[in-house]
Structure prediction request, 254 residues.
Amino acid sequence: MIELTHDEEFAVLTIRRPGALNALSFELIERIGECIKEAGRSRARALIVTGEGEKAFCAGADIKELQRRGLAAQREGAELGQAVFALLDRLPIPSVALVNGYAFGGGCELALACTLRLATPNARFGLPEVKLGLIPGYGGTQRLPRLVGSGRALEMVMTGRAVNAEEALAMGLVNRIVQPPGLAAAKAYAREFSGHGLRALQFAREAVQRALDVPLHEGLRIEADLSTLAYRTHDAEEGMQAFVDKRKAEFRDE
Ligand code: CAA
Prediction:
């Protein structure tokens, strides 16, 4: 089951399927999509994505459900997973994965699709699909190299070896290891940016995301366009005036 709750100024999406280490059935993936959209319509300043319990964030696609499917259904399933995780890119608020234990296969891919990633000390990240005769299908082969480089991504995808929290931090797969683990740490982390205007955060996320897809000269043009749009917002006016007035800015996300 997937649950969307609200905790102070944050939306929290929790994967709860304790009997299967929070593995993702197609039904759960669809529900994740509904919850992401609901979070986008809410007043939340950020979405925190996590798994119930201490053992697993999410152990990936439900392997039992994957068996004996037709090719068309299999392709549809991959496209569903990709489309649902891609909703996080377009979400008007940033997302933070709080990876508490195993993040394997589709679970690792869900974390990769979030804007930022936190790991608890017992977190383990892996794309073990080759061990099943498969390859990642929910964005892992595309997002992982963009985050950690193709050499490290190929090693993880080709060996199926899992990396622990320290290794994940060293390679840039996660932003921080949180201690003590738990939602409070994720909320404290999100508060480092959630007080900024959402428009500026959105333009900044888009500019950085596009940087990974386009040649430098085009990326610089995108940055000029988006920074000009940011300049036209009420929040930019307010932010600069607050600096001059030596007071805290009061952003309105406009
Ligand atoms: N799908 C379905 N069930 C799963 C599952 C998965 N991905 N991962 C774990 N489970 C189930 C197990 O079958 C087991 O259920 P039973 O008690 O009914 O037998 C229960 O969860 C507990 O799992 P384990 O007994 O295996 O727990 P463990 O502590 O010994 O091992 C683990 C933990 C190393 C994570 C191991 O469960 C594992 O390797 N899981 C599979 C991970 C994996 O291969 N993920 C990739 C899936 S394919 C994919 O995701 C494709 C894609 O790109 C979208």
About this structure: The beta strands are 2-7, 10-15, 46-51, 56-58, 95-99, 102-104, 116-119, 124-126, 163-164, 176-177. Residues 6 and 12 are 6 Å apart (CA to CA).
